[in-house]
Amino acid sequence: MLLKRYIPLAIVFLVGSVTLISWFIPHRPFGSLEIHSTQWFDIIASFAMILGALNLLKLQGTKIVQRRKGWLYSVAAVSGFFLTLVFAFLMKGGHYVVISEVGSNSAEVYQAIGDQLNLPFGVVAGQYESLSENGKTIPKYFYTERGARAFESDLNSLGAMTAHQEVAWGGHLQGSGTYFHWLFSYVFTPLSATMFALLAFFVASASYRAFKIRNVEATVLLVAGVILMIGRVPLGHFLTSWFPSWLQWLHLPNLQEWIYQYPNVAGARAIMIGIALGLVGTSLRVILGIEKSFMGEK
Amino acid sequence: MNTFLQKLDSVDRRVIFLIIAVVVILPLIFPLGLPVEPTQTTIDAFDAIKAIPPGAKVLMSFDYGPSTKPEIHPMSIAVLRHLFHKGHPVIVMCLWPDGLFMAKEALDQVALEEYKLTYGRDFVNLGYRPGNEAIIKGITQSFEANFTMDAMGTLIRELPIMKDVENIDDVSFIINMSAGFPGAVEWIQYAADPHKIPMTSGNTSIQVNEVLPYVKSGQMQGIIAGMPAAAEYEALIRRAGMTDEMGEATSSMDAQSIAHLVIVLFIVLGNISYFVKRKQEKKY
Amino acid sequence: MEEIMQTFKHLLLLVLMLSLPLQAQILNLEAAAAETSAYGDLVNISVTAQEGALSHLLYSSGEEGPWEELRVLSPEDFTEGLAEIGLKIDNYTPTRFKVEALSPDGVLLASTETREAVTTVEHWFNAKRTNMLLAILLISGLIIYYIERAKAAKEIYLRPIAGLKAFEEAVGRATEMGKSVLFVPGIQDLDQVETIAGVIILGHVSKMTARYETSLNVPVSRSLVMEASREIVHESYLAEGRPDLFNPDMVHYLTDDQFAFAAGVNGIMLREKPAALFFQGKFFAESLILAETGNSIGAIQIAGTASPAQIPFFVTACDYTLIGEEFFAASAYLGKDPKLVGSIKGQDIAKAVIMISIGLGVILQSFGFTAFRELFRVM
Fold first, then answer.
1. C310 contacts in B (CB within 8 Å)?
2. Beta-carbon count within 10 A of A5 CB
């Protein structure tokens, strides 16, 4: 009972009250308690991610092993998981060449660099004419060392002095020419954007189904919705820009702006006030131990 | 006819999806060139940035990811063009992990390729730090304590742009590009309002409802609300002669306009069908 | 010659001695910790200097630290020979200040420093937040008062909320159809009160599923939420006397990423076709994707969120929606604990106080009395 009930309640009460009071006390250690406690939470949540990952692998792995319905989706999930791990911690790519001396055959060297970078000769010549002691990075990144070495040997055969380098670990997450970056840019980003784009279709089907003139309120909602939808886009301006000055209040963008900034904001504010009170009430109940169901108790 | 109108009420949603797909794709292939006219909130954001004192340092936070990139990235590009055209040093940071990639892409395109600026002097990418609003609170005390190194691994005290920038009070303006939490609301609550630093924000259309009360109360100067506002901002910087490029948001506006019109037509059709059906039910 | 040199030296000394009082009048420096800054770290410095002289303000941190230049005081900083500036220093660090007056040619005319080092510390109470403290005390006091009243077994009326009444109906429907119940407690972590509220509602729903022997599926987006939810569901099943029906894999982790999570939940909905869907917690843009997919499979959907931007989407696509406060009141409705019901009443009274303040503020502001509005400014 002590471990399961009273100690957790005491911890919740202590931490909750101290955090609340510390907002009013600038003196150390209270002044920075809010920042520190948020950071402590983030550290705990980061380590807890391992639990989630293990749970995911366990469930999806069981599905694959037992060949349950939809096991192929689990293969996709597990493969994606391990592929990302490999590209983040084991294989990085990101090989590139640094040129320190162009040599006597400068024209051919510039041409070779321009071919790789898809830049005109003149631009390359201007950029690589004077090189510093440390050389200049040629911003063409290769996934494999072999590719970078091949380019390097092409330049060396033309008389240039070069060195092969790799993007550092850590920087490879956002560096060009790395496997992780490829995965992020060509798999994750399009998939995320696609999921978000689904909203456009769902908004259409939801509007078609839901915006029916059943009563006065629904009618007002419908009219406001139509004005906002058309007024928000260039089409609204196009349709009503010819209105004379005494009818400008009916100009769709103006109407839309008014609805957005006045009735809409008033409603949003009212909901926000209610939500804030609800937050205060729930927090107080949790801190004082009145609400215990989050611990699994009645 | 009546039967057809009644059946409209229960049309398969995939038909709706197909029509939406067609009306979105066609204007992208055959642009209509509808003029983009800026609205007041976007103009307010533009004017607020225009009013930043010359040479003043600006803090820009990239708090969005790839899912909202089509909506927010164009406004990030447009705002960066505006800032760099005016010659402001820009300090970039990210509270979303994916924001780091968005920031790098935007800075590579605008700062390095277009304006040929010098990293560390004209702009810096401090990178991503976990902690959400704790980081905002932290930088009100000290940038260095929260971002000891930038995204490239350089100590920030060695960067010329961070000289004389100890905390957020040393920055003249805050711009937040956000798609959710943490975002504009947290920046206003913990940085802009308590420290009286002017701020504006670019948000997704969905989020604007939550943020607009802060604009109305004067805690934020204008707002770039969704893709239409991104197109408006692109139009404003074009008119000011800062760029000739149309911008991604502007080229998407035709598609969005037609899509909105089609949705309105769907609603009208749906209501006609509803009334016909109701009339029939009353009859029998 | 020697006598002449001696006389010259004496004369010079005399001139210097006579000029000492004049030098003292040229330069004066005072520094003190500012009382107005609750976070300490602010020092008010007053410098009196002869007009025309360039004053360099220096500081030294620590007892024996080197002097470093802080800033140069230009003539614009002075009003009638007095410059008053506020400077930020590190707390708990004794800091000395010195001012040097230089002639236009850079010759040191005079120098003076503070007698004692100034050390700033934070205050124990931020007086600028007194209004917030009073507001919290008032609202908390009201809530606690009504909790105590409710304990005295006074019945408190709560208006019926259709969404909350539909909870049992939804679970019953799933039981009849032999299908599962899907519960999504939002996509944020346990540091959000909405997630805690969602997880509390999960406790009540899992009691119903235990009672009716309906299968429950709880995909989550955060590991900590997974652990907390699992514990709550387990306790609910134990409380209903059905520990045999509990399976830890009922609550499972999908992914942290917002749209990947939406895709995962959509997949579960389309493959398993649950009959009842509960979306209770903090949601963002994925709310409509989830709700529309749920609509497409014909399930009964009950949503609850305190995210203002997502409420319209849930209202459009779901059968029942708990809006804002109703979502936080759900645990009181479902648990029927008098103490929880009392806290809802306290919240309502607090809301009434706020509404009266808003009305009063609008009237006073309209007549130009701005002082009332300033009472609510948060520093």
1. 206
2. 14
Which residue in A35, A213, A268 is closest to B209 by CB distance? A268
Chain B residues with CB under 8 Å of A265 CB are 212-213, 216
3-state secondary structure (DSSP) of residue A99? strand
Structure tokens at B35: 């003029």
The CATH architecture that domain B40-253 belongs to is: 3-Layer(aba) Sandwich (3.40)
Domain range annotation of chain C: 2-113, 156-336
Mutate to test the interface with B, among A141, A187, A196, A240 (most CBs of B within 10 A): A196
Cα angle for residues C306, C312, C317 (degrees, 5° grid) = 110
Decide: A232 and B232 in contact? Cβ < 8 Å. Answer: no
- Name the burial class of residue C207, with classes exposed (0-12), middle (13-18) and buried (19+) by CB atoms within 10 angstroms of its CB: buried
Digit-coded pLDDT (tens) for B239-264: 999 988 888 899 899 999 999 999 99
Name chain B contacts of A212, Cβ cutoff 8 Å.
270-271, 274
From A31, A273, A274, residue closest to C122, measured CB to CB: A31
Query: Are A297 and C235 within 8 A, CB to CB?
Result: yes
- What is the nearest CA distance from B261 to chain A, expressed in angstroms? 7
* Site from A235, A248, A279 to mutate, B interface, most B CB atoms within 10 angstroms: A235
Measured between CA atoms, how close is B156 to chain C, in angstroms? 20
Going along chain C, which residue ranges are E strands?
A: 27-33, 42-49, 54-61, 68-73, 82-88, 95-102, 108-113, 181-184, 216-220, 251-253, 276-280, 300-305, 320-323
Q: Does domain C156-336 have CATH number 3.30.70?
A: no
Instruction: Please report the ipTM that was assigned to this predicted complex.
Output: 0.88
**Regions of chain C where pLDDT drops below 70:** 9-10, 12-26, 50-53, 153-154
Looking at every residue in chain B, the average pLDDT score rounds to 91
CA distance A16 to A36: 14
- Asked if B130 lies within 8 A of A42 by C-beta distance, the reply is yes
Of the candidates C253, C65, C37, C186, which has an alpha carbon nearest to the alpha carbon of residue C125? Answer: C37
Write out the two tokens for C137. 């005390």
Residues of C in contact with A28 (CB under 8 A): 122
Give every residue of chain A whose pLDDT is below 70, as ranges: 296-298
The full set of domain ranges for chain A reads 2-88, 95-173, 198-284
Neighbours of C21 (CB within 10 A): 8
Rounded to a whole number of angstroms, the distance from the CA of A38 to the nearest CA of chain B is 6
Contact between C285 and A196 using a beta-carbon 8 Å cutoff: yes
Q: How far is the C-alpha of B176 from the C-alpha of B72, rounded, in Å?
A: 11
According to CATH, the superfamily of the domain at C2-113 is: Immunoglobulins (2.60.40.10)
First to last CA, chain B: 18
pTM of the model: 0.86
pLDDT score, position C25: 47
For Cα atoms A27, A33, A36, give the angle at the middle one, nearest 5 degrees.
Answer: 140
The tens digit of pLDDT for each residue in B219-233 reads 999 999 999 999 999
Are residues B140 and B167 in contact, defined by beta-carbon separation less than 8 angstroms? yes
DSSP E strands in A109-216: the ranges are: 136-142, 161-166
Specify the residue for token string 């002449």. Answer: C4
Task: Answer whether A273's CB lies under 8 Å from C351's CB.
Answer: yes
**Neighbouring chains of A at 3+ CB pairs within 8 Å?**
B, C
Q: CATH number of the domain at A95-173, out of 3.40.1190.20, 3.30.1390.10, 3.20.20.30, 3.40.640.10?
A: 3.30.1390.10
> B258: which chain A residues are within 8 Å (Cβ-Cβ)?
235
**Is C125's CB within 8 Å of A196's CB?**
no
Report residue B116 CA to chain centroid gap: 24
